[in-house]
Amino acid sequence: MSTATASHDATDAHSDHGHDHGLSDFGYIKIAVILAVLTAVEVATYFVDFGVLEVPSLLILMVVKFQIVVSYFMHLKFDSKVFTWLFVGGLVLALAVFAAMGTSMLFWQDPAGCQNGAFC
Amino acid sequence: MAETTAEAPGAVENLAYGPTPYDEMAHPPLSTSVTNEKMTMWTFLGSDCLLFGALISTYLLLRNRTGPATEGPTAADLFDIPFTSVSSFVLLMSSLTMVLAVTAMMSANLERCKLWLLTTAALGSIFIGGQVYEFTSFYREGLGFTTNISASAFFTLTGFHGVHVSLGIVMLVSLFMLISRGSLTAERAETVEIIGLYWHFVDIVWIVIFAVVYLIP
Q: I need a surface site. Which of A89, A105, B17, B64 has the fewest CB within 10 A?
């Protein structure tokens, strides 16, 4: 098979199944535009006072952006569920680490730690 | 030709991007329907979540603590949000160019793939340049790695992320060279996809760092 034929066949194969697996290039560009807009909103919170909504809105925007990149750019939405479990497992463990560290800082710190402890 | 591939017993279909004419040649029959290489990368990324989870947790717990021995500014006192926002945008757009490189490789369009790979590496380099500038300006303002405990946590977190980005750039340039030499062809398109996963992971880690470390007061 010549290189040109191989390239042509591969292109056809990809486009034939592109609707079932992931997005087209234009679809990815649309996703990137959405991410750019969300980032602009995030940055706007620095210049505009959102009051009590500032932290919750930043956290929500962060989670949404994270989810979009993982689902579409990393194709987790279209790929094997095994990968989802592997990745989510790591995320859950990471959150557990944060919870454990937070607990240790809240409950296990030396009362005189502000003078003697490392975490002052 | 694609139909023949799909009918091959035990052949591994790329679920994320769909079958290519090269699936049967690229992968031996597997019982798990996913390739070992991709499984390894996802396992690594899951474990890397732990690394960054620990580093981000450490920074959050120490961000306002300067320690008993030394005083001095914290990193948050010196943040240049407009500058970091541009860096973040650049890294975010590098994810787009990376996914375009992957789709080009899956379509066996090697020249376009090389173009997007180089673009991605260039955007990553701009991000790293911005980080070097930021670290340098912090140092000139009196905030070094050992200035206080908050600074140590900040530089460790963002430094580790910078190392990840730098390694990603090396991998992207390596891919470019392999494709240019003809050592990497469309039969092994999944290699580009796997490096792409790593690059996107670096991007999502920065999404968290940018929001939690830089933007949340």
A: B64
Chain B contact present for A82, CB below 8 A: yes
Name, in order, each residue with C-beta under 8 angstroms of A92's C-beta and a sequence gap of 6 or more: none
Question: Residues B112-142, buried b or exposed e (16+ Cβ, 10 A)?
Answer: bbbbbbbbbbebbbbbbebbeebbeebeeee
SS3 assignment for A50-107: CHHHHHHHHHHHHHHHHHHHHHHHCCCCCCCHHHHHHHHHHHHHHHHHHHHHHHHHHH
- Complex ipTM, two decimals? 0.82
The structure's pTM equals 0.81
Give residue-wise pLDDT tens across range B179-188.
999 999 888 8
Contact residues, chain B, for A30 at CB < 8 Å: none
Task: Note whether A11 and B104 are within 8 A (CB).
Answer: no
